[in-house]
UniProtKB/TrEMBL annotation:
Pfam families in the cross-refs: Sigma70_r4_2
Protein's recorded name: RNA polymerase sigma-70 factor, ECF subfamily
Organism: Nocardioides lianchengensis
Listed InterPro entries: RNA_pol_sigma-70-like (IPR039425), RNA_pol_sigma-70_dom (IPR014284), RNA_pol_sigma70_r4_t2 (IPR013249), RNA_pol_sigma_r2 (IPR013325), RNA_pol_sigma_r3/r4-like (IPR013324), WH-like_DNA-bd_sf (IPR036388)
GO biological process per UniProt: DNA-templated transcription initiation
Domain RNA polymerase sigma factor 70 region 4 type: 104-156
Family per similarity comment: Belongs to the sigma-70 factor family. ECF subfamily.
Length: 178
């Protein structure tokens, strides 16, 4: 099928799907998530245009339902990650540039780390890999990955204290007379 014909057919189909899918999603989630999931749904529909049955709407509802489930899983992963990082004494998240937002202090602290430490933290926080998986990526043992990750998280916490201005050398008064 010619690309222009395929595109024209999909655009015609999408015109009839967009509003019912938007309403379907808005009944299940917040408006921002609904818009994101709608875009994902239409992308899946475009990629699978040759598989769309004659009754496209029920099929598209199924795709939207799956895309919404994926978005919800991603949100749960983010919450678990935030809890994991918080319990480690590191900031709530290591900002992911792909998300378009982040804490400037964390970004600055991450930039101050040695590149290998920053990469370890990115693999752990952004890609949500455990020490065994990080070991595979970096070509090191799982034990080495675990140790390096622990140290990198501590270095990030130290850098955060510096960036936030909470760390400094306090003068000790011990053993001195006033």
């Amino acid at each position: 099928m010619d690309d222009e014909v395929r595109r024209a057919e999909f655009e015609e189909l999408a015109r009839g799907l967009v509003e019912p899918l938007r309403r379907f999603l808005l009944r299940r989630t917040d408006p921002a998530t609904a818009d994101d999931v709608l875009a994902d749904t239409l992308l899946v529909c475009w990629r699978r245009a040759d598989q769309i049955p004659a009754e496209a709407l029920p099929w598209a509802y199924g795709v939207a339902r799956n895309c919404l489930a994926n978005a919800e899983r991603g949100e749960r992963r983010q919450r678990r990650l935030a809890a994991k990082v918080a319990s480690a004494g590191v900031p709530d998240v290591v900002p992911d540039p792909a998300e378009g937002s982040g804490d400037e202090a964390v970004t600055a602290a991450l930039a101050a780390l040695r590149p290998p430490d920053a990469e370890l933290l990115r693999l752990w926080a952004w890609e949500q890999l455990g020490p065994g998986e990080i070991a595979t990526v970096l070509g090191i043992t799982p034990n080495a990955a675990s140790i390096r990750l622990h140290r990198a998280r501590q270095k990030l916490a130290d850098e955060l204290r510096k960036v936030d201005g909470r760390v400094g050398h306090e003068e000790s008064r011990e053993g001195r007379r006033p």
